[in-house]
């Protein structure tokens, strides 16, 4: 049986995650000086998905806790940082979810 999508409470969790992952650079219009490059690796632009999942340092963290394949797979199917995080937390076993949460 295929899932019909997230419930109302799950949608609420994703909305809250979206707020948590709001990029500081969104405040540039309010006079906040923000660098455009990733603060972790300085290789590319900075946004929540890049910092948490795409940055070379983030990918090394996922590799070190044996989650790189799962993270990569989920990223191919989900668009936002909140969706990626939500799906990973929902699909990972407790044993795998703990290192994921610690890296996050």
Task: Write up this protein.
With 104 residues, the protein is mostly helical. The chain has one domain (10-103). 58% of the residues lie in helices and 0% in strands.
- SSE order, as H and E? HHHHHH
**Structure class:** mainly alpha
Describe the main β-sheet briefly. none
Average predicted confidence as pLDDT: 75
**How many helices in DSSP terms?**
6
Strand content: under 5%
Task: Give Rg in angstroms.
Answer: 15 Å
Measured distance between first and last alpha carbons: 31 Å
Please give the share of residues in helix: 55-70%
- Number of E strands: 0
Tally the structural domains: 1
- Apparent shape: globular
Spans of at least 5 consecutive residues whose pLDDT stays below 50 are: none
Question: Which key features would you list for this structure?
Answer:
mainly alpha; globular; single chain; 104 residues
Provide the fold topology.
Layout: H1 8-20, H2 48-54, H3 56-64, H4 68-77, H5 81-91, H6 94-103
Summarize, please.
The protein is mainly α. 58% of the residues lie in helices and 0% in strands.
């Amino acid at each position: 049986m295929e899932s019909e999508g997230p419930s109302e409470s799950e949608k609420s969790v994703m909305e809250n995650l979206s707020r948590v992952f709001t990029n500081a650079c969104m405040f540039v219009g309010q006079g906040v000086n923000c660098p455009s490059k990733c603060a972790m690796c300085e290789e590319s632009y900075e946004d929540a998905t890049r910092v948490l999942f795409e940055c070379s340092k983030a990918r090394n963290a996922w590799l070190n806790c044996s989650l790189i394949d799962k993270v990569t797979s989920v990223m191919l199917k989900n668009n936002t940082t909140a969706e990626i995080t939500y799906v990973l937390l929902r699909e990972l076993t407790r044993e795998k979810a703990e290192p994921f949460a610690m890296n996050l």
